[in-house]
Structures are given as structure tokens and as C-alpha cells.
Amino acid sequence: MGFVLKPAALPSVAVENSTDRFAVRRIFCVGRNYAEHAREMGHDPDAEPPFFFNKPADAVIDSGHTIPYPAATIELHHEAELVVALGAGGAFVSTDKAKALIWGYAAGNDLTRRDLQAEAKAARRPWDMAKGFDNSAVVGPLRPAVLGKPSGRIRCLVDGKLTQDADLGEMIWSVAGIIGHLSRLVTLQPGDLIFTGTPAGIGPIARGQLCEVQIDGLQPASVRLV
Ligand code: MN
Asked: Per CATH, which fold does 22-225 belong to?
């Protein structure tokens, strides 16, 4: 059996200190996983727990690229996030077994068409076109989980100006908790990436600007807009 069209190349992300790459299967994202960010978006973090949305796998882009300012928006926002890469899958994974699924960690930027997201929210429509556009998942080089779980600060800098600055410990759901919850909604698979939510301080990136997400112990995820 063949294919009527040549299959597309697998989307993938870089691995630190390696020429091998991590093939990406799916991209899941957590909404509202830091209390201050939930409040800045007009929600009560105690009343409304985190939730999930997706980006297509081929929205992924390595750190260090220059990309065109996305079409159909005048309000492109950055969201600095810890990205978790799964090396094993499972359904109904208990929190204490979740850690065993993790292959690695990276810094990421959940690029967002904030104006389209606001329109979608107001019209009770899906977020796909606000979140899942070309190059919308910027991911830095993955650091294998065997080297340790990241801790400490997560920051975003736009042209060197600090816009987001929080501690990974401020997450409402821990990484293990996210994997546990998500695995009750879908069967997780090796190659899945999870964006674990952004802290407060989201804001615009203009054409010509460089946006860099930094997480202690990980290589940065940077992107320049033109
Ligand atoms: Mn996000």
C-alpha cells in the first residue's frame, strides 16, 4: 500500500547537546494554570480550574527563528510556558506514576492572537484560530528528564525588557497533576508535548521585536517577528 500524496515530514523539536530530534505527535496546552494570570484574564482561579486546548503538531518551531507576523491579528501576544515532552503514554495515569511518562522539559512560547481569542470568547466559539496558527508553538531545546526536573524562575523578555517573571512552583496544577488530569480525557502517547500554562504579564510582541522565554536550567526559547 502506498499513499496518494507523499507523507509530510514529521514535526520535531531540538534536543540539547544532541543532533537527534524529538518527533512531535500532538500538542496539548493548559489554560489558566497560574492564579495571577487567571485573575489578569478576568477569572477566579479558585472557582475555575485549569482546562485544555490543542495546537496542531506542525505549529511547532525551534528556538532562534525569525517568523512573519501572523496574518489576521493586530494583537500577537507571548505566553512563557514550561513545556513537557512525553516519552511514554497512558490513560488514567495516577499522579505518582505521571513522572515516569516524562522524557524531557523545554522553555516554550504559546503565541496567541489575543484579539481573535477575545472575539472567540465573546461569541462562545472555539479558540483554534487564536491559538493553533503556523509557528505558534515556539519550543527551545529539550532537556532530558533524567537530568532533573526544572525549578525556579520562568521569565519572558521582549527586546530585553522583562514582561513575565514567576516561579514554576506557582502553578495551580503540578506537571504530574496535569498529566493525570489530561490522561483522563485522552490516551496520552509518546511524542506528545504539553504546554503547562503561563504566569501573569502576558503582552504584545511587535514586528521587529525579539521575544525570549527563559526558564532556570533550560536553554531559552526565542523568536523574532518581522
Ligand atoms: Mn498558554
From this structure: Fumarylacetoacetate hydrolase; domain 2 (3.90.850)
